[in-house]
Predict the structure.
Amino acid sequence: MSQRENFGSRFAVIMAMAGSAIGLGNIWRFPYLVGQNGGAAFIIIYLIACFLLVLPIFMAESIIGRRTRLSTFGAMKKLAPGTPWKWLGLLTVLTPFLILGYYSVVGGWAVDYLWKACTLRLTQDTAGLFPGFISSVWEPLVTFTIFIVATAVVILLGVKNGIEKFTKVCMPALFVLIVGIVIFSLTLPGSSEGVRYLVKPDFSKIDAGVVASAMGQAFFSLSLGMGTILTYASYAPENENMLASGIGTTVADLSFALLAGFAIMPAVFSAGIQPGQGPGLVFDTLPYIFSQMPQWVGATLAIVFFLTILMAALTSSISLLEVAVAYLKEERGMGRVQGTVLVTIVGWVLGVFCSLSFGPLSGVKLFGLSIFDSLDRLCSDWLLPLGGLLFTLFVGWYMSREDVRDEFTSGGTRNTRIFGLVYFLMRYLAPLGILVVFITNLFL
Ligand code: PHE
């Protein structure tokens, strides 16, 4: 068993968890899902999903991780030896591979746009730039490879020192930047249309699919359902208040997603771009904003912005890789180098298909979706909620109430009054809610 380090402080725990949570899910995925699923109504469902379904699962994962001080597979073996719960351990090893594949493709887009920003190509006429880029073969493949190799290098160098130091600086900077972009975006002509879209709900747009997407996005954005939070919680100091770090991470993640919405949507409307166009939304819109500014301002902001997106993406992709590598190290006896190389190669092969699915492989459809979209939907709408459902059933029904209470209240020293409510959410509401969404989505 490997020697486990601890994070140095609560601030470090929250920053590392927020580092994993805040990423492309907030800046790239959230705005385009809002655009595809009816704006404000989607946001309301998303907020409900975050607090009622997903925060209890955050607690469930934290409790397992802190109780066992192991990553998922080992934790299941320790708490439920000889039972089928080990399959949950395996599910959470499979999911990060799949996500890493397509996540790194979008990370590669950010690398590419950073390069374009540095060479002043984002401050000229940017019409048609993005579709041309992703449908080509080599450029996205090269930048995707750069991104996945960079992720692997950080893991090889030792994550925690890197992540802890890096996220403490990067996360606050990210907030300052996005607020700046929101302010600029709101001053663009026609931007009020975008604001209205974000605050005026049209509930006629809501159906089972929209609810499933909102729930899936909540899991994806908070890095839940595949053991990331569990693993990070296993590094938390003994006296850490898990409820506080859970709420802290959720609020930081939510605020960032909403800010990203207010940065992107007003500009989308101002530029006359279709809000429902899908995964390219941010990459089409941001360059438009930058090209509207005086060149040096636009260029500087574009560089800083894509650099920051890239950093946010890296702190998340690192956490994806770490879960799978930790499993290979602990359970399969592999060295860190061997494990990292293996996961990276598998992720890379998957990613190649995802990247090409915007160009030469665009005709290949799985369940009517492109390879990229079907992997994304499979993971966030099904595998992550399934993992989350099993985690919460495990804590709510398999573990004893005393153990759960002991861990949640740090031995009865804090959060004792709220325990009953959280336990109820973990035991009944969250699992039932997820099941209902699953069933309606399957049959409607
Ligand atoms: N939460 C990350 C994001 O929003 C993605 C992620 C999902 C990371 C699952 C780890 C685990 O970008």
Summary: The CA atoms of residues 295 and 329 lie 49 Å apart. The chain has a mean pLDDT of 87.
